Amino acid sequence: VSPPRTPLHQWLGLKLGLGPGREPDAAAIAAYQLDRLRATLAWVRRRSPFYRDRLAGLPAGFPGDLGDLARLPFTTAGDLARDHLAMLCLSQDRVARVVTLRTSGTTAQPKRLYFSDQDLELTLDFFHQGMSTLVEPGGCVLVMLPGRTPDSVGDLLARALARLEVRGVLHGPLGDPGQALRAAADQGADCLAGIPVQVLALAEHPEAGRLSGAVRSVLLTTDYVPRALSARVSRAWGCEVFEHYGMTETGLGGGVDCRAHCGYHLRGADLYYEVVEPESGAPLPPGREGELVVTTLTRQAMPLIRYRTGDLGRLLPEACPCGGVTPRLDRVPGRLANRLDLGGGAWLPMWRLDEALFEVAGVLDYRAGLRADGRGRRLKLTVQAGPGERPGLAAQVERAAAALPELGRALDEGELTLEPVEITRAAWASDGTTKRTLLEPAG
Ligand SMILES: [Zn+2]
What SS3 state is found at 204? Predict the structure, then answer.
């Protein structure tokens, strides 16, 4: 039995302007994207001083095809911090929302992004269609995302759900898990949408049973989702777990998996994704992993041309088992920069440590601190433990880490030592606007 087709398939057909009964296919999607790309390039060159300079001297008829995009310079997080006003394509009174994003590093200026009413409407529409993958009219979603500010992610999601005749109850990021569980039960929520580690804390809370049989689906979003974490949430409530990939730069919505759960169906009408080799910036073919680069195709206020996301990713060349033909992205394993220097030229991407540690029962979250000084290179893991007695948790975590071949080798070769694992009961706060920073600054 094949899984139900993603609703984003038909949605894309409508966006492409295909008549009734006509299905989108790869050629129709590419033709639409090329058309939108040309319109976006014309728009930014007319309206934005930043892009007018940056894209001066393009030959007539550019781009001839989507591959030509690779000849244009990248836009970076630094550009969003320095030149946001010069990137703006509308007068400021037509900006409906400004988002200021803190970036890592103490000296870094914040990034700033601008959205028009039309930009926000396109996000609402994507949330509406995307959520129809996992909830049905009459349902109720507890939205555990920031939503107090108008047009914030939680606010937009709740409004999108209303279009689907689903009740979106805005709860906000997790504070007191017991209270959140009671709220979900009182409201009759059959779906939860939240930050991965916060939903895990809820799923393994002593009162999680309140939602057994009630919660049928969960959407994990705003951060990378370790496979092991997703499996634990699914086991706790016997529910289906979906993942959403997006960032403020993609207009919050980016892509969501379908019921086949093998990669994200991308918001192909509004976004064009490339994957490039991180060092050289050379484009990589579908199937190869590299840095995700995104170009907006419909953004009005502040379009992005070849924005380097800093995220690792891989486009999936093969068709989805659900039959939906939107462009697809493999699950995103995290930030390129989020990796441990094991010494001797060896590196460990943090997503590998994530997968190993979230396999350990009782680990709700963790941080890694790497120190290199006269005593060599030392790795300190601090683990947030779930409720109940957890004898032997520190030893289990240590074994799970050392079982990673890269880490085990560095330990054997004396490049690295593992300090005693520290166990804490306190959760690291997250307001859902920043990704988990696993790597603590060395101190
Ligand atoms: Zn699918």
Answer: coil
